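Feature request disguised as a bug report, sorry. It would help if multi-protein outputs had a clear separator. Right now it looks like this:
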Amino acid sequence: MSVLLSSGCNWSMPGREAFARFSSTIFLIPTSFLFWMTAANYYGAAIPSATPLAAAGAALLLTNIACLVLAKYGMFVHLAGSLSNIRNHAIMNTVIVLAAFLTWASGTMWPDALAALGILYANAGATRHIWFAARESPPIDA
């Protein structure tokens, strides 16, 4: 959506709708692999390693916390409108770290799969938001 708004172009309604469909697809492609990986691992009982999952989640969580601090108090205070998006990503990364711990503790893939379903749900909500924002926003005057 920010590409659409920052482009400065006076996009037509079909152009905005095409952009919304493209953005929606980009948001949902990575999380759609959840179903494929769950089916592939259901009978194979391949349990994901908790260490890389926890490391990635923790690194991204620290990045989100730094972005929150910079957006709220630092030199990027003009981006304070995106605080809710940064907060949502921080929550998702906390869930990833928790899922890694639960995957390690339980020895099953289900905490990881449930976390992925939660992220899929959040991405579906973001996709819906992009779709309606692109359809309902007025053209930008150049």
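(second protein starts here, but nothing in the output says so)
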Amino acid sequence: MAEEIPAQFQRLFREHYPGVAKKLYALTGDYAAAEDLAQEVFLRLYRNPPERLEAVGAWLHRVLTRIGYDYLRQRSSSKTLLEKETARVAAWSEGAVPSGEAEVIREWEKDVVRRVLQKLSDRDRTALLLREEGYSYEEIARRLEVNPKIVGTLLARAEERLKKKYGQEEERNHGGRSEADRRGSGF
């Protein structure tokens, strides 16, 4: 049994690491941070695996989301730190070989999501992130210090504001980005 666990872990690591790292990069916008955070996800998997390994995908998603958002909260707590990270990512990206249209679209989508998250109130952002991380309504209520009976309404309203702001941000930036792409491609 003891030999089986490391073998299972190695298999799960090989199978799921690329997807975990890719999701964390999409969330953070930082390759180095995404790789570090992905290692943390798998360290948690090794130390405290889920009871049902067939559900490891959902478990990994929940843990990577929690770790990614914790990272973003820490990073955005200081505006100076956020600016340094942005400059570092931009400097790294300039040295990287472009990977095509998919990479351009992914970068644009990440920027939109980051801007939208920054525009939400702390309460809305926290409520939505906690729900995404799998917290119960009671746990969300305790964390936000609100009555558990209002959590459903609070989440519905926060989600509505998120969708509205995302739509506005996407519309505002889509036209300019498409025009710039057309000029850059010669069409």
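Even a blank line would do. Unrelated, but nice: Confidence is low (pLDDT under 50) at residues 176-187.
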